[in-house]
Amino acid sequence: MSGDIDEARNWQDDPIDCTRCAHVDLKTSGGCQPKQACINDRHAQRIDRFFDSNPELADSYLAHPYFEVRAIAAKFASLFLLPPLLADEDGTVRSSAVRRLPGRDVLHLRNDPCDEVRMRVATRLEGDELLLMAPDKYYYVRLVVARRIAPSLLGGLIHDEEAEVRRVVARRIPEDWLLRMVDDRDAPVRLTIAQRLSPQLLSLLRHDQDWRIRHEVASRIAPSELIGLIEDPYSLVRDVARSRLEVEAERGPRASA
After folding, report:
1. pLDDT by residue (tens digit) across 33-79?
2. Is 37 helix (H, G, I), strand (E, B) or coil?
3. How far apart are the first and last CA of the chain?
4. Helix, strand, or coil here: 82?
5. Rg of the chain in Å (alpha carbons)
6. pLDDT digits (tens, 9 = 90+) for 207-246
7. CA angle 25-27-28, nearest 5°?
8. Closest by alpha carbon to 95, among 124, 66, 63, 65?
9. Model pTM score
10. What is the rounded CA–CA span in Å between residue 31 and residue 24?
11. Comparing C-alpha atoms, which of 74, 128, 127, 126 is closest to residue 101?
């Protein structure tokens, strides 16, 4: 691997010959450097450095035969030249173009065969157009949707198969929907729900199998509901329940005085 990085080869695996490069004059001005910043190198990072130093050249490389060059050039090129790249044969190139174009231009790619492209499309859409991507087969697309869509539109993701998606949903759904997720099969999701439930509703989770959730319950449930938790099998749950009861016991006489 280290030998590959130390080499200067083009995308066709041939050694790079600077004397045959159209930009050979840039070497003297610092606009390129072999194995560091080079338009002909096969390594994406080196191509990126080249365009970073010479962004004005990006427009002329949007049709280059190497997909990495096209994709990186799209980061620097004129916006007006990017729409044709939405039909590029390579998903990385399409994704790079989507990243910079407005939602109205990329809407037709919400069913693109490339997961990365659809993920980028989801970052460009809003409202009902974004909602159409909620059933996407790729979990990360659904995760983007869950993070960006209006909370009132999250109902379809409450029972998503991916726990990470449901955790985001649990953090964002309206409060009056929380009970719909109180029996979620994933403990971190239930913990998020417990953290948002009112003290009056926490009793629904007082017998949860996960001690972290019972600890949250013991920390915030109404004092009158703490009795059963002082015998919890987990010490941290018992401790917080007993500590709160002791505080309440001390507070009682003072309040009556």
Report:
1. 988 999 999 999 999 999 999 999 999 999 999 999 999 999 999 99
2. strand
3. 78
4. coil
5. 28
6. 999 999 999 999 999 998 998 899 999 999 999 999 999 9
7. 80
8. 124
9. 0.85
10. 9
11. 74
